[in-house]
Fold each of these.
Amino acid sequence: MTNILNNLNPEQLEAVTLPPVSEAGQSQSAMILAGAGSGKTKVLTTRIAWLIQTHQASPVGILAVTFTNKAAKEMLTRLSAMMPINTRGMWVGTFHGLCNRLLRAHHKDAGLPSTFQILDTQDQLSAIKRLLKSLKIDDEKYPPKQLQYFIAHAKEKGMRSKDMDRGDSFQNTMVELYQAYEEQCQREGVVDFAELLLRSYELLKHHQPIREHYQERFRHILVDEFQDTNALQYAWLKLISGYGTSNPSSVFAVGDDDQSIYAFRGADVENMRLFERHFKPYLVKLEQNYRSYGHILDAANHLIANNTERLGKNLRTDAGHGEPVRVYEAATDGTEAAWIVDEIKSMINTGSTRSEIAILYRSNAQSRIIEHGLFSAGIPYRVYGGLRFFERAEIKHALAYLRLLENPNDDTSFARVVNFPTRGIGAKSIETLQDSAKLNNCSFYAAAPYLEGKAGTSIGAFIRLIDHMRDATRHYTLPETVDYVIQNSGLIQHYVNEREGQDRVENLQELVNAATAFIAEEGFAQDTVASTSQDEPVLEMSPLAGFLAHASLEAGDNQAQAGQDAVQLMTVHAAKGLEFTNVFITGLEEGLFPHENSINEDDGLEEERRLMYVAITRAKERLFLSHTQSRLLHGQVRYNLPSRFLEELPATSLKHLTPRNKDARWGGATTTRMPSWSEGSDWGGPAATVPRSSNSAIAAPISSLPRKDNGHGFRVGQSVFHTKFGEGRILAIEGQAEQAKAHVNFNRHGAKWLQLAIAKLTAID
Ligand code: ATP
Ligand code: MG
């Protein structure tokens, strides 16, 4: 056969070429259960290529589910590299992405307007807050976040408000609020993430012709990271695969129970057992690891052996031991970051590629200080997650205007920008509008004409602006539309006039570029997504609708400049499925990793351990682990013990870079909270700069620190102005004359190290 099968081991080859139909003419499903780095994703991708190449499937007959948009793109790229196929019409994507596609194609049957918009988690929360306000519900008694969780959880179990048990009075109110939320979303033509799934599940369930059409079309369904599917996703898979019919499709599931890390979001490893029972899959185990050297693999195997709930499997490698896993103990998070920067510098000096270096952390908040370190050392880096491009306030404002062009009934967007930039529409007018919308049971947009007086005039003008922009851009390309809207909505002008608005203006302009790139990548202009047969409707999605869906769905993916070689920063969750030559796992402290919320529950602790297993197994050649004695987190200094996971690693695979001193712990407590103090003075200095025996010395307020002269006339505690970052306060100064650097905490941009000789800083007090 062809070369795509050449570099597979016998078990992988068996899995890739498993006949999808048995000799008796029945479809045959399969489950590949294997540890990290054993080639599961490679097998899945190669199988798609094999099915196509051997004409057992056409590209459009394949449905492949990946865990992130990034993974989907990678899969399509690899497929194109394996053989000349047009991947455009292929259904490869995340559950959310695929469900969005399904709902766009069948919006009428799904009971949605063709212009429906997706609410991301933040939008959903503001929609819930708005709902509580309009119903005059006490949000202390019914916290918006709790309601948000309640709704997501119910939907993930496939339950509508009408299906729910009303229970006591609290539960009863929650269910009523859920119902009011459903009505609000329906009225506004918006769907949240869980709704995408539930709605498309219901679409398939209640519309036999549609269900049968897709069951016949997708004869081959492949699912990566199966261990992290939730109940609804599994039910969706059963429906679309025709489970229980006389002619089900072949489902190829790959997973690793040891890497199940989304139980907190409703994922259930139990689905692997259910899958075995329901689909009677052919089972393949892969035990050879191709990713990591021996010491790294030993560490992973040892660690995960501490979990009890396992399906059981092993990993081995022929790659040799490689370098030992290095463990570093830092005095503070500042010294931890400084050490990471030093290690990275020397790796880069010896030829490492920056994108092959990953820094992983358990909580997003940890990235800030590492970012400072990299920033001031001039090392390009990219943060996955965190404040993503599409989540920035100015971008969300622009998207809200664009959404109103598509769907004026989207009240969340309406409320976001009706008075942004300010156009004299006060809270009172908005309240009047809200009441009128409620009274007439319609959207804000539809309620506006009912308003009289001042509210009627000012809101009427806003409506005319939206209508005018929609008319004006009717024949524009997507980038032209985006450009028109950011100019004519007044957004650009607003930020141009703002003292610190330059970044935001640049981001808005970047949105026009994002639209251009979107059109180029998706090929919207040439062909809308392929329809493969007569009875399947062509996807009804304008480029703008496609772009807005992309903005909501891809907010989780990295948005930094493409192509630049940069160190990769991300949470362990976000690192799933990825691999890097060099990996740092930081903050290995009790309370942080394992996370404090999990420590008192067995299940929680086992999930944290699986998370640590995922983290370790991302490394190919070098693995660095670090923990600190004290750390500033959420405004508090915390003193932590080293993570128990460090103790669970085999001593023979570790190399401690710092002397181990078990006695020097803080009073024996696992976590002590200290009052807030300003960070910075310990940056980059030797570990001893933070006294280990006296807390009071650490808590010195900035104002009591000695004034240092650095030849530039600046002092610690001084307020300063920077042309790009705006106002800030100096936290620390290091070095003299040309070498002098100041650590400045900017109101809007956080703390940054600046070279005084270069930075344009002006004293303002
Ligand atoms: P994870 O559980 O982390 O998702 P995985 O099981 O999906 O891991 P892959 O990412 O598919 O593993 O493979 C890990 C690495 O091993 C990749 O770099 C892949 O190209 C390589 N690899 C897999 N199989 C082989 C093989 N037979 N020969 C050489 N390299 C291989
Ligand atoms: Mg994988």
Amino acid sequence: YPIVVLISGSGSNLQALIDQSLQGQLDINICAVISNKAEAYGLERAKLAGIPTHTLDHKSFASRDEFDAELQTMIDQYQPKLVVLAGFMRILTETFAKHYEGRMLNIHPSLLPKYKGLNTHQRAIDAGEKEHGVSVHFVSPELDGGAVILQASTAIAEEDTAASLANKVHSLEHIIYPLAVKWFSEKRLTFHDGKAFLNGSVL
Ligand code: GRF
């Protein structure tokens, strides 16, 4: 099952997909990993796993439209059935998001619709939240706004910092993201009219 993964950083979610696929729990073929940052450690993880990598530096493009158009061409040469955003820290143009509508997933470290955008862990702590978590969703043109597929939550302890909370959330991410990818590859997870369905029931 051909997928392309986009990253900007450490790539621990990419690693979870690689590991589950090597262990035979996930029947996917990661055709390529693309990063907008040359120094992203996830590129090393991909190389170690023998996966082709590309860097497409957004700073060498005059506009977001031009960057996204080139990114789309790069992705589409692999003809993936699914595009997986795994810590890809770029806002997407509407054209790009529409092109992959219903076949592009993102993972966002909050219990959406709460805390879209950045610094989610600190914002949840500052707001005095008792729980926090992570969401996998279909990507829509609205930032962190597409149909939610799956969430996992954790309690916020008195002594939690943004860093300790990020660690807790990361371990949840590595469980739920491969699961959502698995469902999609098995055609159990589908998308119609802006909504996510699992086994034919709306989520
Ligand atoms: C994760 O926290 C994810 O939720 C967010 O970016 C981070 C990526 O982490 N979208 P990693 O690069 O997969 O380790």
